[in-house]
Write a structure and sequence with these properties.
The structure is a homodimer. By secondary structure, the first copy, chain A, is an alpha+beta fold. The first copy, chain A, has 2 domains: 5-75, Arc Repressor Mutant, subunit A (Orthogonal Bundle); 78-222, no CATH class. Helices cover 52% and strands 15% of the residues of chain A. The first copy, chain A, has a 3-stranded antiparallel sheet. Chain A is globular. The structure holds a DNA duplex.
DNA sequence: TTCATGGTTCGGTGTTAACCGAAGCATTCA
DNA sequence: TGAATGCTTCGGTTAACACCGAACCATGAA
């Protein structure tokens, strides 16, 4: 009968505000130090340390020691995915923030979901790739031959992407748009290329801000 | 950056073992009464009532009053999806079931899901009924005429089943098999008949143990 | 070595909330 | 109408745990 606690133990970890803040701070895939996470959570370092050991022993976080710093990162994209799903649920149930202020607006337009593009722009990108036949239109999308050509021309090293350990394509549910956007190794590569092309001027935090030239370039290629 | 607590409040709700048990009991989409959920969670009705109001005011559950019963169901498929995602995560992180001992094995073979048969045997039963054309092959299966004849001969009072307030047939998702088994009034009637026929020797708890004669009879009729 | 910094472990305090007994409505059945 | 059932509200108890102050390791710099 005890098959509830199974999810309960994990959920309880996410249920503490301090820990939730830490995890959301890590959602973009960066690795942060313990003190950074403490300030993100708004607690003293000792308290943060306790939380971090808990998250680590539950294998939600990985740690990497570098000098006298300890860098924490999410143990995988699935953790970020669960967090996104919870955000979506929290939003639907209305227990939440009322989408005001320019920051929230910007967040809705384009943001970083783990390491790929999410929000309005993310959905547009995903739809465009499917519509043009660059990826298949299934639950679990695949890259097509024409897609390989197009993306190589776009500046992506397809061989490297397909050689990565993660799945190439992934349909990731967008919590603000309620539709899918592109995740996986390819999603990460696309975001990376956009950034190196100068389309995106601000990559700090989760908000992604497009330059005006990047904006029109994105429009031209994907809309 | 205060979008952490947002998810924290929802996650905290899922973080309590009693509530988690209730929600997993509802994952198949059925609606259960408050007392049923109390027993599923292993708590007294008063305690369950408190949990249910919390889940309801967070819009994770919907309630429907019918006579002096109150039926609770998940407020949408997205809730079930989040629960599934959490289960996946819990499984990956290894914070979970070790599936050792004969009890877990027996649980996987045949168990009681609310009041009907679940597990390996439950899936076999469901498939057999569909394959033989006794129920239709849709999302929401229906009893056919040949099905009525067969089940009457099997010893079930079909008129009573079809006169019950609950739906007759229900495709109920099996958490160990990841496929559907038979729920609803008919599912309950089938289990009841099997028990009264002596096919099942131990009906205590959730584990259902088949007698050797019952085992071969089940095999003959449904495999 | 000595000092400073990043992290941790160790007590003690305070708040939260799950739990149950008992009593209270509401609905159905006899 | 009275009895039984399903569910809820109320009060008090208990256990868990987040939080911080203080002291304690480790690493790197002076």
């Amino acid at each position: 009968m005890k098959d509830g606690p199974l999810i309960a133990s994990v959920a309880a970890l996410l249920g503490d505000p301090a820990r939730a803040n830490m995890l959301t701070a890590l959602m973009d895939g960066r690795a942060l130090t313990a003190t950074e996470l403490a300030s993100a959570a708004g607690v003293m370092p000792q308290t943060a340390s306790g939380h971090l050991t808990k998250l680590r022993s539950a294998r939600l976080l990985e740690v990497e020691q570098q000098g006298r710093h300890r860098y924490f990162r999410l143990s995988g994209p699935d953790v970020a995915q669960v967090l996104e799903a919870l955000m979506g649920l929290a939003q639907r149930t209305g227990a939440v923030r009322v989408r005001t202020g320019p920051r929230d607006e910007a967040l809705r337009v384009a943001r970083r979901c783990y390491d790929h593009l999410a929000g309005e722009k993310g959905v547009i990108l995903f739809d465009s790739l499917r519509r043009q036949g660059f990826i298949t239109d299934s639950e679990k999308p695949c890259l097509t031959d024409t897609g390989r050509m197009f993306l190589t021309q776009f500046g992506i090293d397809i061989a490297a992407v397909e050689h990565a350990r993660r799945p190439v394509c992934r349909a990731c549910l967008d919590w603000s748009e309620r539709r899918h956007h592109l995740g996986g190794a390819l999603g990460a590569a696309v975001l990376q290329t956009m950034t190196s092309r100068g389309w995106i001027v601000s990559g700090l935090g989760r908000v992604l801000l497009f330059s005006s030239s990047g904006q029109s370039a994105f429009q031209a290629v994907f809309a």
